[in-house]
Batch of 2 targets.
Target 1
Amino acid sequence: MNRDEIIGGMVIFIFGAVTTFLSLRMPIGNFRMPATGMFPLLLGILLMVLSTLFILNLFFKNKKIELRKKWFSLSELFPAQLILFFGTMVLATAFLKPLGYPLFSFLLMIFLLRILGTKNWGFIFLLSLVTGLVSYLLFVQWLKIPLPKGWIGL
Amino acid sequence: MLESLQNLANGFGIATTIHNLFYCLIGAIVGTLIGVLPGIGPIAGIALLIPATFGLNATSAIIMLAGIYYGAMYGGSTTSILLNVPGETASVITCIDGYQMAQKGRAGPALAIAAIGSFIAGTIGIFGLVFLAPPLAQAALAFGPPEFFSLMIFGFIVLSNVTGTSLLKALMMATIGLIIGTIGLDPVTGDARFSFGSISLLGGIEFVAVAIGLFGIGEVLINVHQPTELLDQRVIVPRFRDLYPSLQDLKRSIGAILRGAGIGFGIGLVPGPAPVIATYSSYMIERKISKHPEEFGKGAIEGVAGPESANNSSCQSAFIPLFVLGIPFGPVTAIMLGAFLIHGVSPGPLLISQHPELFWGVIASMYIGNFILLLLNLPFVPFFANILRIPKRILLPLIILFCMTGMYTVNNSIFDIWMMLLFGALGFLMRKWAYEGAPLLLALVLGPKLEVAFRQSLMISHGDFAIFINRPISMAFLLAAVVFLTIPIIRMIFKKKGGEDTREKVRG
């Protein structure tokens, strides 16, 4: 039995418990006239039951807990490359409006290509420029999608 | 029967005019492009392009919009197979085995069998539409809220059995999907739920954000998680002769295609997200009857052929209630109804007599459109399959840009991109800890409909749960659900007694 699996089951149980708690703060009604909170309340309870069964099943299936030195290593789960990659996506989303779509797509490509280890700056610059231009022409000019214009106004 | 054939022949006369053929071709091409672009599904695609049909007569306009609809369904499978990004809901199931096939260098056969299966199923669906429309539409009227609720429960049990992890994990994911589906406005009373004062959350969680996040972004993050040197590895690049399905592939697929066509046609008549349920049911049945169930989830061609056929067939039969009753049973047909009304046509029992040229012309054009799509898609198989030749360190940033842009275009909302990123991170963790995203996604789509059916049923019965077993159709679905739920458990117990848990093995 893997302790990570138990943690997963417990997280899901907590999610069910929070859902149940929040649902109880809404009008529940009765079975004749179910109100807003009834359905999520039932789902929250169901999720708690399922996650309890899941955890119990883990215990019954294999009583011996797989003892690892550490439960899971954060640096193993989230290596620097992954954090940089995801962080760039988050930052790009945060700056999409002020930057505008053409600049956003150009810069996003530059950073992501570089983070994934492309070394040739000329290639990175050219590919980012072409990608930004093509996506701008496709989405903004051809499909007429009102993407953010940003300070460059394109 | 003869009258229907005569009418269909007249329909072909209308559909094959140069004018209508041109609009059918345009619709098929635009639809395929829309299907390939993640984020812009058939609903958004048709909605965006309705204004482009204002200058056309009603028949040409509906022919073009129908072309966009099934073109998008064809295109949606392409990104599912190649990139694990479902363009629309119905393509989620195709991701499971289609993407695995692509990873093994069999993207070509997967794409080709999806196109061939869709064509065969579309053809069967159209003939069903011609001959069975009126009686089947009457049968669909027998579905009330209790039947619909039981059907959904059956669907959840089916989909929980489909996925590769344990049944309990799949059921938990489905329940979480249902809970996420309750975010936003209560579909009955209009009260806000779990919105925490956010206006953006009032509209609920956008399905596309969850789909692209869990599958597309999650997959990209899994790839980024690998050591840098692995990013230069390409998936197995197919040789030219491997780009199309072999005779063995066709032999394995034909049964799945025919079964998928039948399942899809039947489910398309039922209210609700027919293509979604149809693809799941087809996949489940193929897995159950397969001699090699262990191949499912690892690149079984039947896992692509069956669901893709069911998808296309259900799209055709979904037009029956729209044409004959004037009632759209799904969001796409609802938008099509809007297009009918804009062009001064009211679908309903009088449509066939009042606008025979439109009814039969559109039906004939569907067949022609399917043929055009087959011709369009098969030659492009090598082109699409070669996308996989691009090294991952270049392909992954392109997918991210594509996903983020596509996500924004759905509602012109940056909030949706945030949601996509959130579900992308969740998708990554779920993949790491072996939780499947498909049950969550499908539950999210079906959840609001399930809730409405549940509450309406209880209101009708004054709180008596017996309503679900007193009605024969509803009881049949619930019995089937119980059977589907208990058989794997009983089998697992017996296998365990025999000293081997093959269910876990099969589920990978």
Target 2
Amino acid sequence: MPPASQRVDLAAVRALAPPLLAVLLAFGVTGILIVAAGKNPLLAYWSLAHGAFGSWDRIAVGLNRATPYALTGVGIALCFRARVINIGGEGQLALGGLAATWVALHMVPAPRPIATLCALGGGVLAGAAWAGLAAGIRLKRGVHEVLATLLLNFVGLLIVSEVLQGDLGEPGSGFPQSPLLPAASWLGRLVRGTDLHVGVLIALAAVAVGHVALWRTPFGFRLRILGASAPAAAYAGISPARALMSVMLLSGGLAGLAGAIEVLGVHYRLIDGFAHGFGFNAVAIALLGGLNPLAVLPAGLFFGFLETGAVAMQRAVGVPTPLVAVIQGLTMVFVLSAMGLTAGRRRV
Amino acid sequence: MLRMLGITKSYGSVRANRGIDLVVPPRTILGLLGENGSGKTTLMNVLFGLVRPDAGTITFKERPLADHTPREALAAGIGMIHQHFMLVPAMTVTENVMLGWDAAGRWLRPAAVAEHIRTASHRYGLDLEPDARVGALPLGGQQRVEIVKAILRGAELLILDEPTSNLSPPEVSGLLDVLRRLRDEGRSVIFISHKLGEVLAVCDEVVVLRDGAVAGRARAADTDRAKLARMMVDRDVSAPIAREEGAAGAERLVVADLVASDATGVERLGGVSFSVRSGEVLAVAGVDGNGQAELVDVIAGLRRPTRGHVFVDGADVTARGVTGRRQAGLAHIPADRHTTGLVGDMTVSENLAFRDCDGPPFRRGPWLDFGAMRVAATERIARFGIRAGGPDVAARTLSGGNQQKLVLARELTRRPGVLVAAQPTRGLDPGATRFVIDEVLAVRASGGAVLYVSTELEEALVVADRIAVMYRGRFAGVMRRDAVDITRLGLMMAGALSESPDAAALYGRKAR
């Protein structure tokens, strides 16, 4: 028998091979589409790579972009592990941003870390509350959480629009956005001269905490049993209601945190539609990462860099940005198909 | 009639069939015996065209049968009746017989088919009414619908896979009569079973498989249970079961007037009271579906009763959940080890721990101690003789018997005061069954109280100090071990007899 470390390495390689192959396939198929559009795919991909990694600044933008993906993706991965289908990341993230904005604008002046922490905390609470509302509707009224979270997305996004038209809007800006937040509430920069903000570290920490919670604590064990077999969970004395509520609160809190970081670290104000696409892409990222918190990180980075590179690709070669959505979609299809092939070997 | 020679089939490195010869003469009932994994299923799948053998030939009615599909097997005259019936409950007997039957013609002629059913029913003693709705028939009746389907489709060789597992004793003897009449009318039957008594009662010849090869064959008249059992397992499982007779002690499990309904609101448990004492096994017999599952679920804390109480060692646990009852000393072996008792995709060590994660040794502060789980698993694998590739393999890779050993290892290591075991030997071969019974009796010997639910009367009689029969959510009767009357038990299981048991039988007090 080979030594333990070598066996682990082999297992890791086997786990990583399908998603990497899927990504390559997706790029290949999209390349054909680029050729069909009359452009040079190699040039297009070179400019994509250049746009994503061409300078420290570009890398910082990509990392910033991946941050809300990783945060929200970890929460959704934990939900899906327990077969709790939370697709309300969009709304939870939007309300997290809204709450952070409100706290930053209304709190008494405070020095930097305190103001930032209060605003972030507001985002966490709002996201958790929004997810908890969906969980409550599920538990008290029997409305399936898919429906409850999906519908609350619309409500959440419209609340943000509504508030920006009214109390929280910047007078005279002509665009639905809040005034610039006080600088004390901004997230600190990590590297001078780039946009890289501290939120990236928070996302890393969340990934680590998600991993430890899922694989090392009774809480994660309960989620995994519940997801593998509801009757076995009942037999183990697990309360499905309590598990549903707690994992939804956790996931909503992470999405709310992502929204707050997006506001406090990137825009410095609340902009209508800032949450657009994050919630649903996070579902894709959680699945892409095989519902493993650690694997959600590379999946989130992939989406983040792909999207920042896409803008450069469009500018340089004239390939329309929607083709990036095609790459994302194809990667998903290929990865999930590959997982279907190896489903029997996955660890629950 | 049927001649299978040198049938060989491997799945990877597992050799499921190793050169099996099986010959079924005309007008014969052949018993096919063997433990789980001995190759019975593979052999029958080869015969029915579901699996292609690596080597070997099949001749049926002097004609070779090779590379055939199940459809061709049917057309040639081989009929298979599975353990789980392939019937549409909402349709009548006639409609079920016509379903998927080409010979019924392009236009449906229910009257003509009904006439065929009546004729066959009369000839073989099937007692079937063509216009009856299948869902309203008892399981024995549904099985006879399957038989009439096969006969009308021209089956001259019928294969019955574990046909008696869901039947009450009177239904079993009815089925055996039907099989004898089929034989007398010139057909042959392959009777696959674990139950030696039934095989000896009805079969002309017996073939025993072990590890994918024929371990022995005999004429039923020339053999007996002990010989067959030895051929099956190659170790003595017929040795008398060690059972010390001791006086029962204090009441450990008390159930008072339990009433419960199923998910649709239908009452499945209609007021059951009894107690089980220290050092005692109360077996609950009865045909499946008479409220045994609900009784077990209510006692285990998986279902809320609408009325009544459950006491463990004097403490009222009715309001407690699963965890609270486990802490009170209640262990539970659930009937369905695949979805409830185990999580197939999790490892052996996780499965051995998943009911005990609320405290040491598996939980330390906020962490699960996977190292401790693995150590405990290795120890239990050795102590219970679980054949597994180690603590880190998925539980689903284990055989049925070893999976049940996992459940036992988890529940019994806790040294429970009360054990509720629901059909703990279902689907297990004699070797594993014996293991389970020995472990259950060990709990009894160490002063535990055991509630043992089984649909196998024979097995219930082996373990029980007292035996109760459940019928339609109530106890139709309770008998002490020394006063068992098999005929009366059979009548109770069929619902033909109900007697209100006296307190001594219900609560296990010594009769004076």
